[in-house]
Amino acid sequence: MSDKMTYVKALDTVLTAGEGIYSDEVMEKLTALKVSLEKRAQYKSKPGKMTKTQREAADFREKVVGVLAEFGEPVTCGDVAKALGESGQKVSAALSMLGDWRADGKGEGRVERTVGPKKVSLFALKVM
């Protein structure tokens, strides 16, 4: 089985074959692009390493879970936002990541969403 062709391998091939054919400026840009892709691949290959923003988002989701546990019953996104003193948009995004209804399938499945009276979405911790 042959190795999968990646952007880095493709750029390496072009850089090797392109010596003397392309201008120095083009070779410089391609080399910089290759280095950038290598750095990104190296960063992605470290599971568990989160950026500052990702850590903050994970911490915030845990706060949302804590508030849902305190309420103990299905509540609206606005109720959670008031309890945390945060915007509804931020809480809604956190609830989406905690739920399993996201279209991209990236939800954690820890929160369930139901529709209450007046078609209001209510959120509660899933009973595991």
Count of runs of 4 or more consecutive helical residues:
5
Strands, count: 2
The first-level CATH class of the largest domain is given as Mainly Alpha
- Rounded Rg: 23 Å
Largest sheet: 2 strands, antiparallel
The helicity comes to: 55-70%
**Overall form:** elongated
Structure description:
The structure is a single chain. The chain is mostly helical. It folds into two domains: about 40 residues; about 70 residues, Arc Repressor Mutant, subunit A (Orthogonal Bundle). It is about 55% helix and about 10% strand. The chain has five helices and two strands; from the N terminus they run H-H-H-H-H-E-E. Strand 1 and strand 2 form a beta hairpin. Helix 1 runs antiparallel to helix 2, helix 3 crosses helix 5 and helix 4 crosses helix 5. The radius of gyration is 23 Å and the shape is elongated. The two termini are about 45 Å apart.
Secondary structure layout plus pairing:
Layout: H1 7-17, H2 24-44, H3 52-71, H4 77-84, H5 88-98, E1 111-115, E2 121-125
Antiparallel strand pairs: 1-2
Supply the key terms:
128 residues, mainly alpha, Arc Repressor Mutant, subunit A, two-stranded antiparallel ribbon, 5 helices, 55% helix, elongated
Short description:
With 128 residues, the protein is mainly α. 55% of the residues lie in helices and 8% in strands. The protein has helices at residues 7-17, 24-44, 52-71, 77-84, 88-98, and strands at residues 111-115, 121-125.
